[in-house]
Amino acid sequence: MSVHERLRRLLFLVPYVSSRPGISVEELARALNVSREHLLEDLDLLTCVGRPPFNPDDYIDIYVENDRVYVDLDQRLSAPPRLTLGEASALAASAELLRPAAGDALSSAVEKLERVLPPGTHERFRAMYRKIDAALEAPQALGPLTRAIHARLEVTFDYVTPGRGAPESRRVRPHELLSHRGQWYLQAWDLNRQDDRLFRVDRMEGLAVTDTPFQPREDARAQVPNPARTDAAVRVRFSKLVAPYLRERFGEDARLLADGGVEVRVAGDNERWLTQWVLSFGGEAEVLEPASARAAVARAAKAVLGV
Amino acid sequence: MDRTERLLDLVALFLDAREPISWAELREHFPHDYMGISDDAAERKFERDKAELLELGFPLTYIQGDDERRDGYIVNRDAYYLPEVDLTKEELAVLYAAGSAALTSGAFPGRDDLSHALRKIGFFAGNALPTPRVRMELGTDQASPQLAAHLEALWEACAGHKWVQMTYVSPKRPDSTERKVDPYGLVLRRGSWTLVGFCHLRQDVRTFQVHRIRTLKVNTSRPRSPDFEVPEGFAFDDHVASYPWQHRFHPRLDVRLRLTGELASRAASLFPGGTVAPATEGEGVLVELPVTFLDGFLRFCLQLGPACRVESPEEARTRVKEMATRILEKHGVREEVAA
After folding, report:
1. What secondary structure, in 3-state letters, does chain B show?
2. pLDDT of B265
3. Which residues does chain B have within 8 Å of residue A133's beta carbon, measured at their own beta carbons?
4. Which of residues 126-185 of B touch A (CB under 8 A)?
5. Digit-coded pLDDT (tens) for A161-187
């Protein structure tokens, strides 16, 4: 931990405790994202901090009593320091993740951040936060979905499942939004299926937030299935041309072959995903087994050729 | 005295001071730190401390005295404290959700800055703090601790306009290359972080996938003076592709597609930047878009299946047929599966 990081944390810690007297050590450690051990070291250090001439009254009086933290101080460290340029810039850049779903709230929040920056730094702030471009083109539906998650309200939508014809109407309890490789998903309890489901946000149509409240489950968490497993059933071989990219993505799980190509094993429980994935290599990938997966890829290629 | 402790003592001293504090007084207050060494060494030590405090946003300045006031260092207390940001519920939710999503990804430039910023804006919110239920996961190749460390170093280099020296591996070449780059900025596209900057080796603006950087060193000489300026009018979009067909590998080709069935209603989101029009003849919609990397584009079309057909130009139609034929040949009936 650098001096810079520790100092930043300590300058925040004192006002934080003064505004929440009696906060538990655990809670404070969680808020500062440090271990209990580090926090106790920090608190020890703070008892040595004061101002010259260092009479007993000149020290910050911070102490732990019954595992709770208290601070007695004059007004010197009652509020945290302003946002630094770097802090405000990183925050503004991250907020772009939700554009355009965040609508006006995003631009007004960034304006307000700019207002509380140290005077004379606004120009540099604008230049700096544009040095990170994390725009994920978040779909509009994220706005209402975020509100529904916070307000714990059920939502309804029509969901397009590829290859299944007409969209199906769904009613769900939204739990969490997840962006995976730039694609947004909603993890929710599907009331029709009575099961947890992951929905792609771009396949939702006619999204509506109902006024039916629900109690969310604590343990729900979205997991994007990772198709790469060494014990998976489908073996796919890739040509030498694309092998470096596969090795980059799969690491040691991409087994190097004598001809410079690689072989990987992936899960085969989603035939549609597998077929699309193999097709996306434009002839540089071949399913070795099982035969059913080979046949599915062949059928898909025939369909494209119209034969 | 421990440096962190000394810096905190300095903060406490200056926040309490009504009058400027002279260098001589400072030396008296901190005899173990600024005395017992040469005057030059003591001044350099204080300068380093001052620079650290300034970086933390502690507005310490030296003022020349006059009849009313003596010379010395003083801090503008009003400029130090964070005023209430006064965010509405919606604004706080956006910043919190996006900030937390970025942090859960494990790799975001300015990660440390971001977590401090979230804490600070949450200071006044108390119990009204929204619980973010938004997460961002990048691919497995973006999950290494080395990538996170490189992003952090690049963020600092971008902010300070300092050049970086790096070892870079590209899947297209067997060996790594040494590059000196002026980092202009960092871009996240489809789960992958890219550095955009001026490459001294190629004498042009180039893009680098951050996960392909093996070693990275930021120029540390004269840390507070910039090594370069970002050219006026520089825009990420001129250099970074969001979609496979936007890579500038070949001259522009205008391609027309026909999307039918369930793809028709998704045309605009599948092919951003393309023009979508209902087909006047036949079914579905027609999409026209510029393509500068034909193979990348056709591979994307292939995975959409037969509901996405390439209509023109002939060159694109021929190529997509070649690809599909090759796939079919590879997956034709075989007597024996390779062991």
Report:
1. CCHHHHHHHHHHHHHHCCCCECHHHHHHHCHHHHCCCCHHHHHHHHHHHHHHHHHCCCCEEEECCCCCCCCEEEECHHHHECCCCCCCHHHHHHHHHHHHHHHHCCCCCCHHHHHHHHHHHHCCCHHHCCCCCEEEECCHHHCCHHHHHHHHHHHHHHHHCCCEEEEECCCCCCCCEEEEEEEEEEEEECCEEEEEEEECCCCEEEEEEHHHEEEEEECCCCCCCCCCCCCCCCCHHHCCCCCHHHCCCCCCEEEEEEECHHHHHHHHHHCCCCEEEECCCCCCEEEEEEECCHHHHHHHHHHHCCCEEEEECHHHHHHHHHHHHHHHHHCCCCCCCCC
2. 84
3. 185-188, 236, 240
4. 130-131, 133-141, 155, 158-159, 171-172, 184-185
5. 766 677 889 999 999 998 887 788 999
